[in-house]
Amino acid sequence: MTELIRSGLKFSHLRILAALRETGKIGAAAQHAGMTQPAASRLLAQLETMLGTPLYVRHAQGVVLTEAGRTLADQAIATLRDLDRTHQQIGQIASGTRGHVRIGSVTGPSLDLLLPVLREIRVAYPDIQTSVNIDTSDRLAEGLIADELDLYIGRIPDQADARPFAIKTIGPEPISLVVRLDHPLSGRSGLTIDDCLPFDWVMQPPGGLLRRTAEAYLLERGRPLPRRVLGTTSILFTLAHVNETNAIAPLARAVASFFIERGGLGSRLSILPVASDMAVGDYGIVTRTEEALSPAAAQVFDLLGRYSRSKE
Question: HTH lysR-type domain location, by residue (predicted)?
Fold first, then answer.
């Protein structure tokens, strides 16, 4: 095909030959291709000159393509079909119904916000491909600036230069205290935060946002910190440890609800009815200030925003 293009092959040549393959008549092929019959005959003659071989043979009912004509016509049909498909895909990309969107999220919102939005994307925009990175806001912010993410659900880190970031605030992230179902505090009436302090706690390592939030909650109310704390970044290990011991774990309420109320651990873990006002500060949908979202990423951004408002 490259040599033919150098010899002067045009799309009009492909269109008339493809139409001739389908109709078997030059007049009908010309009408199908939107040109006059003399123009069609001229294009076919040019093609035969380029190739140095006849492409069709006339007969009483019209024309019959030669083997060379059928070979080139089949290629012309395939090429035009591929171009139509490409044009459609470009239109989908421009309209935001096709593309690849790289999404980051902190753990809690990934369960109660991102999961349902991904389900909606799968149904409403099946040609949008997504990849998801679950991490801390610090790391997600680094990934956004490095162009490894298109957007993330989380917070702008306190120590970061906020100028490269834009955030659509959603709200605070509530925290629940999780224990095993037959924990000594389960079912106790009049439970207070003081009742929880003699037990071991399982939290993020020192410096983690959720741990800082839980510690600040206690200190602001004049309470001491738990004496024994197991530090881990693994939610799965946290849940397993709580299930096997009397430890207490502060977890994002979305995580606690997902694993306890809807998950397979529902019969083995429970949420203590205490410290219901404990919450991590506002989070939102974070993007880059100086770079517009791709149409597909903009669709995801809008869906996240709409879903978060519907939960209010």
Answer: 9-66
Q: What three-state secondary structure class fits 101?
A: strand
Residue 39 tokens, joined: 């123009």
Q: Say how far apart CA 204 and CA 210 lie, in whole Å.
A: 7
What are the domain boundaries of the chain?
A: 2-94, 103-282
What would be the CATH architecture of the domain defined by 103-282?
Answer: 3-Layer(aba) Sandwich (3.40)
Sign of CA dihedral 158, 287, 154, 232: negative
String of b and e for 190-216 (b: at least 16 CB within 10 Å)? ebeeeebeebbbbbbeeebbbbebbbe
The structure's pTM equals: 0.69
Say if residue 40 is exposed, middle or buried (CB neighbours under 10 Å; 0-12, 13-18, 19+): buried
For the purposes of burial, counting CB atoms within 10 Å of the CB of 110, is it exposed (0-12), middle (13-18) or buried (19 or more)?
buried
Output the six-digit token pair for 175. Answer: 């925290």
Cα 254-132-261 angle, rounded to 5 deg: 20
**β partners of residue 62:** 59
Residue 137 near residue 154, CB atoms below 8 Å: yes
Taking only the tens place, the pLDDT of each residue in 199-244 is 999 999 999 999 999 999 999 999 999 999 999 999 989 999 999 9
Asked if 2-94 and 103-282 have one fold, the answer is no
**Token output for 234:** 């693994």
Domain 2-94 fold: Arc Repressor Mutant, subunit A (1.10.10)
pLDDT of residue 55: 85
Contact 76, 17 (CB under 8 A): yes
Amino acid at 186: S
Alpha helices by DSSP H, listed for 96-130, are 107-109, 115-124
Structure confidence by residue, pLDDT tens digits, 114-135: 999 999 999 988 989 999 999 9
Contact partners, residue 309, CB within 8 Å, separation at least 6: none
